[in-house]
Specification:
Largest sheet: none
Radius of gyration: 16 Å
Structural class: mainly alpha
Strand content: under 5%
CATH architecture of the largest domain: Orthogonal Bundle
Helix content: 55-70%
Length: 114
């Protein structure tokens, strides 16, 4: 297990404490069972969509699984970090709205690649 896998470790603790198998959590989150195993062992880091599905299935917030966006040590742009902080406290409707905006923006960027 990765030394920096606090999310995976916390996810496993929560899953086990609720009496859920990896297969059951995967079913609840509508993701592949292997994703849960790889996340828990630190071999896979979920993208935002997968993370959101897991948190929603378990009725959790980022703070509940040890992810504190206020203390993220990264060289990323401050705009990115602030965006993640906003998204972590957004409602499901707001997340869907932002996700659709991003998909639309991505399609627009693809036009410029041609």
């Amino acid at each position: 297990m990765s030394k920096n896998n606090t999310f995976g470790e916390k996810l496993k603790q929560i899953r086990v404490s609720r009496g859920l198998s990896q297969a059951k959590l995967a079913e609840m989150a509508d993701i592949h069972e292997k994703h849960i195993s790889k996340i828990e062992t630190g071999r896979f880091h979920p993208n935002f969509e997968t993370l959101n599905k897991i948190l929603k299935a378990l009725d959790l917030k980022l703070d509940d699984v040890g992810i504190d966006l206020k203390n993220v040590s990264t060289n990323d742009n401050p705009f990115y970090i602030k965006s993640m902080q906003i998204l972590s406290s957004a409602s499901d409707d707001e997340l869907e709205y932002f996700y659709n905006l991003l998909k639309t923006a991505q399609k627009g960027l693809e036009i410029f690649k041609e």
